[in-house]
């Protein structure tokens, strides 16, 4: 079964996550839960610990924190949890938690852990309808989608604030079905080695002029990342002209996922990379 990490933020719907944990636990999954500090006002961490059999993480620095032990053991809780996750879920995801994740703010256990994971991420928003429709929230959701996170659309109905509209946490059975879909997806290309190329070659005419094309490699990157999320061992060979994602520094990997990456300029360089990798690959995709 799978290691499922759930981050609970302080939406009123947090109490419903107990039912989600119960359903997932019944299927044999290992549940690792973290909470924001304020979420403790809604759900008891001890009750969750009794259900999952694992400690609930809330604070980055516990009272007995010792940096000497960290340096000696080479293990940090939020990194270890992030590494073992087969899927990382935030439910309910409040507007505040969504905003902090979108901005890369890492000031609690959830937001720090999510920066360290390369597992699929599922965001389950829950908030007032006006907060949901606010341009800032919609902008933040689009930012999270650009990271490859999946966003569930909230349900509509009676809200905790007394109004009717969109913003309810989706039914836990619907969330569970979505989780199962993501987990099963990861097995579709399991054991396969996929080679993807992307971007245009650059052929020099002389010391100044070159022949090239406008292929950006963005489609290749998208295919490589999707193949990885479907469970494949992926190699991505991309043009040196392939642009880094927005706001990423130059000379950082094109993808932050565990994808082997090589860059080429000329067709001869591309040929060398392909010949060295294609015999190890089940599928070759050129974009």
UniProtKB/TrEMBL annotation:
Q: Does the keyword Ligase apply?
A: yes
SUPFAM superfamilies per the record?
CoaB-like, Homo-oligomeric flavin-containing Cys decarboxylases, HFCD
Q: Which UniProt keywords apply?
A: Decarboxylase, Ligase, Lyase
One Pfam family matching this protein: DFP
What the entry lists under Gene3D superfamilies is as follows: CoaB-like, Flavin prenyltransferase-like
Task: Read off the InterPro entries from this record.
Answer: CoaB-like_sf, CoaBC, DNA/pantothenate-metab_flavo_C, Flavin_trans-like, Flavoprotein
Question: Can you provide one Gene Ontology molecular function annotated for this UniProt record?
Answer: phosphopantothenate--cysteine ligase activity
The Flavoprotein domain covers: 3-171
Q: Where is the DNA/pantothenate metabolism flavoprotein C-terminal domain?
A: 189-247
The superkingdom of the source organism is Bacteria
Q: Name one GO cellular component term.
A: phosphopantothenoylcysteine decarboxylase complex
Q: Which NCBIfam families match?
A: coaBC_dfp
The name of this protein is Phosphopantothenoylcysteine decarboxylase/phosphopantothenate-cysteine ligase
């Amino acid at each position: 079964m799978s290691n499922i990490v759930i981050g609970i933020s302080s939406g009123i719907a947090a109490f419903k996550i107990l039912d989600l944990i119960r359903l997932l636990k019944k299927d044999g999954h290992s549940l690792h839960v973290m909470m924001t500090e304020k979420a403790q006002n809604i759900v008891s961490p001890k009750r969750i610990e009794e259900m999952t059999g694992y400690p609930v993480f809330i604070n980055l620095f516990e009272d007995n924190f010792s940096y000497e032990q960290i340096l000696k053991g080479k293990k940090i809780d939020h990194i270890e949890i992030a590494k073992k996750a087969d899927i990382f879920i935030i439910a309910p995801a409040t507007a505040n938690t969504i905003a902090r994740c979108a901005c890369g703010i890492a000031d609690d256990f959830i937001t720090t852990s999510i920066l360290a994971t390369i597992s699929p991420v599922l965001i389950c928003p829950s908030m007032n309808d006006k907060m949901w429709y606010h341009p800032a929230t919609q902008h933040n959701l689009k930012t999270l989608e650009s990271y490859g996170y999946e966003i569930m659309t909230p349900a509509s109905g009676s809200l905790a604030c007394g109004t009717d509209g969109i913003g309810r946490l989706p039914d836990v059975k619907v969330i569970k079905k979505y989780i199962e879909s993501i987990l099963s997806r990861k097995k579709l290309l399991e054991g396969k080695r996929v080679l993807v190329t992307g971007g245009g070659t650059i052929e020099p005419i002389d010391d100044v002029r070159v022949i090239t094309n406008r292929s950006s490699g963005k489609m290749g990157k998208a295919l490589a990342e999707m193949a990885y999320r479907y469970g494949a061992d992926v190699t991505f060979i991309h043009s040196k002209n392939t642009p880094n994602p927005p706001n990423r520094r130059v000379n950082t990997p094109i993808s932050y996922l565990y994808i082997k990456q090589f860059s080429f300029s000329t067709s001869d360089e591309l040929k060398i990379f392909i010949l060295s990798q294609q015999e190890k690959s089940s599928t070759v995709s050129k974009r």
